[in-house]
């Protein structure tokens, strides 16, 4: 145990005392994500400037008058409201499809009454159906604007503030991105989906590149330079050397993961700023639980990636060989990230959550789009830990092998 | 008793295609060490003398548990390298050009690091560091990264670190190779000191004068086999040779003739 810690400390110090490594493994991931996402957010916000001049056309049903007044007050360029009842629903949907109108918002008949009746025993949330056309820029923009106002009005303005402990834990929207029709029941899914498109790929990429920039050097490099042999003639078990190195690699990769995570968090306001009303705290679209789940998934994913990279680095004779061997796995995981980009939701097949990395990517998507299924989460965590154990076992075997560790 | 007994060790390497090309051979296997035996005693320096490729490094690696002999065993103060490699590693100080120090760290850091890995108390480490570093003149460079040290200073740092646990058995592979005369001298002087402290010292070399000046016993190894092995004077007397050089070349010639037959 003491030896593991001694080796861990030295490995950790190796990176921490090297400015270049601190920058590339720890600062860069967060910075890159922040810059990328802020730029993306900027682009979205720019296009929403031009949206301002567009008059939003909304067809409604049973819209509470209070909400209409609220909207008129909040949006200076008043949206054009029409009643669905004046034409028939099919026509209105066709108009939306064509992009002639931007939104259809159907409130429950007794929406306000139900809303205020939250203390009754068989209380069910009042429902609002929102239809929009994601293929139309104006429509897509309007939905963002209206979610925000729906959320902020019915949660803050129209309701008793004591009702929810933390109101925004409950405020979530539901969208699906295949066009029509499209039901909303107080869910924030649209925003989550936007985030979940790129994020899993970016997270996997940065986790990988963090571990890739130090793993091969720490193991294959030590073999190549002959410094590991110096360690092998001390009375230290080879498993202790292996575990000490993996622990340090994991911690550093985790730091790079947290850095990416902070980068994401910091860019949220820019990214979502245009979609939410100013009085809605950006971070509140996810709950503490969501953030914790995200972190735990990132954590086990780090371990899987570090395990894989360590095994490859122990097998390879040189840093170059290790990097070359890691590359296919790197691309494969990026492809996994890309392949799930447009799915918008986590895969529902159970076996998916047994495949390393693929499971993580799907879990991240599920978390970001508010659709976590407990068993999926559990399977991801458990299967990842099983893979990590296998990697550590193999790593230990490799470290025991004289031809692998000392082949000069 | 702190003797080191090498008992009939044999080590065969599989040769890869690349290695076969380099060695200019079609054999798929190379017997690097062939049924080799010798004993080294405390208070003596044992010299393993042989031309390049004779199997000296392979033999010393087997003693230091870096590789396992295919056959035979080595008893280091009674501990077997095959079954008790862990104990053996605690007793030996091993130095070979392939054991490198990491460029990024300073002599101070590495000395303390390896001291801890040997399970030595902090103040003992500090005491040994001061005496070894001043002995080898490392103290002025103790906070300089190994990567920035000269070859000689690197080698001396390696020696100091290999002795951090004050081992009873000191095994140095070609310790003066590539060193300037002054540095080489400080190393050989220290080896004599270690011998006088009663340590069991084994060194390998292909340089005859090193054996003549330092060693109490010599084993001449050619092609993985021990040709002669005894006290230096006895070896010369038994083979009716005046000096080591004559004997060495005679043995090599014999081997070459055998190879051609
Ligand atoms: N890991 C290895 N794989 C293949 N051949 C090896 C290996 N190590 C040593 N040899 C071969 O074994 C022989 C003895 O090598 P070595 O012990 O290094 O000799 P010396 O140290 O006396 O110069 C040489 O022919 C060398 O090429
Ligand atoms: Mg050699």
Structure characterization notes:
The complex is a heterodimer of chains A (408) and B (261). Chain A has 408 residues and is mostly helical. Chain A folds into 3 domains: 1-53; 54-183, 3-Layer(aba) Sandwich (abc type-2 transporter like fold); 189-405, no CATH class. Chain A has a 4-stranded mixed beta sheet, sandwiched between helices. Chain A contains 14 helices and 4 strands. Chain B has a single domain, classed as P-loop containing nucleotide triphosphate hydrolases (Rossmann fold, 3-Layer(aba) Sandwich). Chain B has 10 helices and 10 strands. In chain B, helix 4 (107-117) packs across helix 5 and helix 4 (107-117) packs parallel to helix 6. Chain B is globular. Chain B has a 6-stranded mixed beta sheet with strand order 6-7-8-3-9-10, sandwiched between helices. In chain B, strands 2-1-4-5 form a 4-stranded antiparallel beta sheet, covered by helices on one side. Chain B is α/β, with parallel strands linked by helices. The chains are: A mainly alpha (408), B alpha/beta (261). Residues 56-57, 173-174 of chain B line the site of magnesium ion.
Q: What's the quick description here?
A:
Chain A has helices at residues 2-16, 19-52, 65-74, 89-98, 111-116, 137-157, 189-225, 227-232, 238-272, 288-315, 319-339, 358-368, 374-400, 402-405, and strands spanning 57-61, 80-83, 103-107, 128-132. Chain A is mainly α.
Q: Tell the overall outline of chain A.
A: elongated
* Outline type of chain B: globular
Q: How are strands sequenced across the largest beta sheet of chain A?
A: 2-1-3-4
Please name the CATH topology of chain B: Rossmann fold
- State the largest interface: A-B, 24 and 28 residues
């Amino acid at each position: 145990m003491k030896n593991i810690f001694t080796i861990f400390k030295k490995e950790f110090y190796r990176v921490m005392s090297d400015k270049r490594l601190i920058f590339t493994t720890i600062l860069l991931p967060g910075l890159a994500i922040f810059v990328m996402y802020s730029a993306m957010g900027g682009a979205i916000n720019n296009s929403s400037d031009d949206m301002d001049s567009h008059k939003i056309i909304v067809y409604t049903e049973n819209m509470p008058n209070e909400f209409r007044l609220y909207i008129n007050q909040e949006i200076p360029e008043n949206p054009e409201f029409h009643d669905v009842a004046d034409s028939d629903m099919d026509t209105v949907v066709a108009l939306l499809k064509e992009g002639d109108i931007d939104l259809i918002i159907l409130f429950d008949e007794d929406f306000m009454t139900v809303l205020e009746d939250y203390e009754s025993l068989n209380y069910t949330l009042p429902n609002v159906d929102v239809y929009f056309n994601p293929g139309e820029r104006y429509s897509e923009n309007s939905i963002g604007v209206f979610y925000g106002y729906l959320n902020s009005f019915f949660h803050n303005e129209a309701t008793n503030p004591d009702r929810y402990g933390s109101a925004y834990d409950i405020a979530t929207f539901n969208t699906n991105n295949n066009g029509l029709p499209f039901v909303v029941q107080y869910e924030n899914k649209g925003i989550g989906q936007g985030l979940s498109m790129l994020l899993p790929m970016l997270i996997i990429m940065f986790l990988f590149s963090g571990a890739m920039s130090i793993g091969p050097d720490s193991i294959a490099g030590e073999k190549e330079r002959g410094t590991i042999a110096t360690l092998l003639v001390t009375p230290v078990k080879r498993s202790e050397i292996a575990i000490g190195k993996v622990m340090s690699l994991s911690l550093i990769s985790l730091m790079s993961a947290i850095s990416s995570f902070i980068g994401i968090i910091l860019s949220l306001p820019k990214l979502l700023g245009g979609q939410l009303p100013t009085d809605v705290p950006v971070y509140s679209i996810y709950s503490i639980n969501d953030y914790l789940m995200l972190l735990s998934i990132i954590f086990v994913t780090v371990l899987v990636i570090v395990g894989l990279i360590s095994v490859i680095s122990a097998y390879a004779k040189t840093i170059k060989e290790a990097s070359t061997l890691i590359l296919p796995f790197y691309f494969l995981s990026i492809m996994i990230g890309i392949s799930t980009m447009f799915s918008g939701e986590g895969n529902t097949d159970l076996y998916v959550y047994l495949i390393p990395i693929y499971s993580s990517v799907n879990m991240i998507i599920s978390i970001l789009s508010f659709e976590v299924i407990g068993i999926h989460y559990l399977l991801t965590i458990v299967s990842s830990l099983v893979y990590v154990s296998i990697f550590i076992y193999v790593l230990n075997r490799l470290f025991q092998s004289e031809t692998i560790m000392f082949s000069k | 008793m702190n003797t080191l007994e090498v008992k009939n060790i044999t080590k065969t390497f599989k040769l890869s295609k690349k290695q076969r090309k380099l060695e200019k051979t079609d054999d798929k296997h190379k017997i690097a060490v062939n049924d080799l035996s010798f004993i080294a005693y405390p208070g003596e320096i044992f010299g393993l003398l042989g031309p390049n490729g004779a199997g000296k490094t392979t033999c010393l690696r087997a003693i230091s548990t870096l590789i396992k002999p295919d056959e035979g065993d080595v008893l280091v103060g009674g501990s077997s390298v095959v079954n008790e490699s862990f104990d053996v590693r605690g007793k030996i100080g091993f130095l070979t050009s392939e054991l490198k120090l990491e460029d990024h760290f300073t002599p101070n850091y590495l000395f303390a690091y390896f001291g801890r890995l040997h399970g030595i108390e902090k103040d003992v480490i500090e005491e040994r560091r001061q005496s070894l570093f001043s002995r080898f003149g490392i103290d002025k460079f103790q906070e300089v990264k190994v990567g920035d040290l000269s070859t000689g200073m690197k080698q001396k740092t390696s020696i100091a670190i290999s002795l951090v646990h004050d081992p009873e058995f000191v095994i140095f592979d070609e310790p003066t190779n590539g060193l300037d005369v002054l540095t080489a001298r400080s190393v050989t002087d220290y080896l004599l000191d270690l011998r006088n402290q009663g340590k069991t010292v084994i060194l390998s070399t292909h340089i005859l004068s090193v054996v003549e000046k330092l060693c109490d016993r010599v084993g001449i190894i050619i092609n993985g086999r021990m040709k002669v092995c005894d006290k230096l004077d006895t070896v010369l007397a038994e083979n009716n040779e005046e000096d080591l050089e004559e004997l060495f070349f005679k043995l090599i010639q014999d081997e070459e003739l055998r190879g051609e037959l």
